[in-house]
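Marked as duplicate of an earlier ticket. Keeping the data here for the record.
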Amino acid sequence: MSFYVYLSGEIHTDWREEIQRGADAAGLDIVFTAPVTDHDASDAAGDHLGKPENGFWRDHQSSKVNAIRTRTMIEQADLVVVRFGDKYKQWNAAFDAGCCAALAKPYITLHSEDIVHPLKEVDAQAQAWCTTTDQVVETLRYVLKA
């Protein structure tokens, strides 16, 4: 039986691939899912619905289309990993973590120590806080093989 893990958050580094490679190397039976990580494609997700009057409404309609994918994959996941990067503020990642908390969906946060304070409420609801992708893989290994 496969374990389903949704990889939420930061899209500018290869952290998802690192976790997938580590899980494969550990022989873990995990199906990984993720949001659309092509920034331009994500921003254009609702463009087929018509040309809005301004940027706010374009973002609004695209965020609703993206939410179909995000909400479905979070609900189907056994566990969610939420990555907060250092370069950008990932409000969407914080929102995903909040959805997990509201759904009683287990989640792990992945971020550096220097942003512990702004993420204290998000981390307080997480089942684990990791600072490296290796720690995430080891947590997954324990959950699946202990």
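See parent ticket for discussion. The chain has a mean pLDDT of 95.
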